[in-house]
Amino acid sequence: MSSSRQTGMFIYPWDIAESGIEAVLKTLQDAKCNTAVVNSSYHQGRFFHPRSKTFRRLPFSGISFTPEWSKYNRLRPTVHEQIAQAGILAQMKEACEQAGMGFHTWWVGLHNSTLGFAHPDLCVQNIWGDTYTYALCPSQLEVQHYAKALFTDTLEQVKPERILMEATAFLPMKHGEHHEVCLLPLGESLQWLLSLCFCGACTERAESKRIDVGAVRQLVSRLVSQMVDADSLSLVSAEAREVAFLLLEYPELYHYQQSRLEVVEGLWRGLKEIALSMGTALDGFPSSTPFFVNQSYWEGVSLRKAAATLDRVVPLAYGDSIDDVAYTFHAIKLVAPEAALGAAFSLHHSQIQSAVELAARVKTAVDAGAQSIVYYNLGLVNNRRLDWIKQANLAVEEWR
């Protein structure tokens, strides 16, 4: 690779199949990127592709290679057959090696509506017993086995230099599902409380740690009801301060939250052992949702423990201002001053309006010690925003 700092783009394998490997490599090179971060497992969705002037719909959550089926138990991945049979990932890896470009894979673990709908008993369940079918619960032993099997399968077959891990924790209650509608204001503490999982596995684990789960359920139910009934925007604006207040006031709530953090840490350590055994670097997003990085606890993630496990912590630096981006790295360094860092940036119109703004955010990350910069997403940006990436990367080279 031409630079010690990795500058790359997230890429969907179906975009590679549609555009062709040569065209994708040229796009990366023209944008002054030195790394392809190609997805190998993803959730379903509908995406607008401005350069090809089309919408693409993914009807299921799936992987882009043919798995070794003997690795799996009850949960078995769905395969994007055309992509897998065409060997897109292997071809892209070979092309990157020939071009002197880094090849990483971007791996989505437990965000899987296809498996969630088929196995609702293995999903996150809130205080009311509602099932979040987009979120497989990491406390479930079957889910842990699936995550480790898929992770191992990916490393064995895709053979990336680094794997960037996403969605291996408790996904929050606000997800953005099709026609997700809520007429009431949802503050930070309410969303957190409604993200707590009370499935059988979470309950059993907490009880084994002598946590009175009945008392926790009763408390959370009361708090949620009070917040919902209050229905006040002015109160919601103050909720960011409520979380610490509630954790200090109610030790049972604190201990239940700690039980979640330990579940995620255990799974991440298991995945790290697999990556280490195969000589692959493990990077990870501290959350799958672009909120402030120290809100990662919504997903059961401890920044301190993540930094101790991962080779590189890659926050979604999608903040609305340069100060927000700066705070992202400040927050991580408060609890993990020695953490190796990367940064992911979105080219979404609500967050970035110009090349100057993007470059300033990237500079903030670089100044904070980010060793990798990744942009979202090659297939979802137009030529104008591709040029913004180029200008930001050229600025990165000047700062070296």
List the helices and strands and how they pair.
Elements: E1 6-11, H1 13-19, H2 21-30, E2 35-42, E3 45-49, E4 54-58, E5 62-63, H3 81-86, H4 88-99, E6 102-108, H5 113-118, E7 123-125, E8 131-136, H6 141-158, E9 162-166, H7 188-193, H8 200-208, H9 213-230, H10 233-236, H11 242-249, H12 251-277, E10 281-284, H13 303-309, E11 312-313, H14 322-335, E12 341-346, H15 355-367, E13 370-376, H16 383-399
Structural write-up:
With 400 residues, the protein is an alpha/beta fold. The chain has one domain (6-177, 262-399): TIM Barrel. 46% of the residues lie in helices and 16% in strands. The protein contains 16 helices and 13 strands. The protein has helices at residues 13-19, 21-30, 81-86, 88-99, 113-118, 141-158, 188-193, 200-208, 213-230, 233-236, 242-249, 251-277, 303-309, 322-335, 355-367, 383-399; strands at 6-11, 35-42, 45-49, 54-58, 62-63, 102-108, 123-125, 131-136, 162-166, 281-284, 312-313, 341-346, 370-376. Strands 1, 2, 5, 6, 9, 10, 11, 12 and 13 form a 9-stranded mixed beta sheet that branches. Strands 3-4 form a two-stranded antiparallel ribbon. A hairpin with a 5-residue loop joins strand 7 (123-125) and strand 8 (131-136). Helix 1 (13-19) crosses helix 2 (21-30). The longest helix has 27 residues, at 251-277. It is globular, with a radius of gyration of 21 Å.
